[in-house]
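Q: My labmate handed me this sequence with no annotations at all. I'd like to see what the chain might look like in three dimensions before we decide whether it's worth expressing. Could you predict it?
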Amino acid sequence: MTFRTTASVIIVILSTLCLSSARDAQSQKEYYADKGVSEAEWGMILDARMPREKIDEVLKSGASISLYFTYPWLKVGYTEQQWLRLRREGLTLEEAPPCLNNHDADAEWAVVHAFLVPGLHHFKRRQYTKAWSMTGIAALALSGLSYGVLTKNGYALAASIGLWVPNALWSSIDIGAQVYRENNPEAARFSTAYDRSRRITLSLVVPIVQR
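A: Here is what I predict for the chain of 211 residues:
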């Protein structure tokens, strides 16, 4: 078999596989569209690489895909499986009994504390490299802030704030991701790390700020 013939065979095989994959994807999309999954929700599924088993589990619970991706269980200290069980029983979070898991109840505050005191929870978790890095940056930012206030130096104030905010976000987002993985180990299989961390942190922080 010549090189050209071999290349042609490989191209035909790859093309066949691509077409088959495209047909399967379209077939799945149509299947879930019949079950009420919207175009936007299908985009969320693809973006998160959500496995079919998880899609079916969420839909069977009576929840929508868009609701699932707001991570509502985190706001009240439930785990993902607790929330899905409540949905299957026909209960909303407002109708559910209070969560008795202190670790879960304190989880949302860990994110806020991590923002206000970068490195604190990393020390508690013995993640010393991150903890010292965050603490060092925070100390440098506070020193610059103090200098800016005392000398009325606007550049020092701006630089200090510019140093503090990214560091605080790094601390809170990292803790938010860790808390989520601990409470929902199964979901970590299919969501991208950065996007999941960002959405989780916002879902925890925003309700607290609004209280």
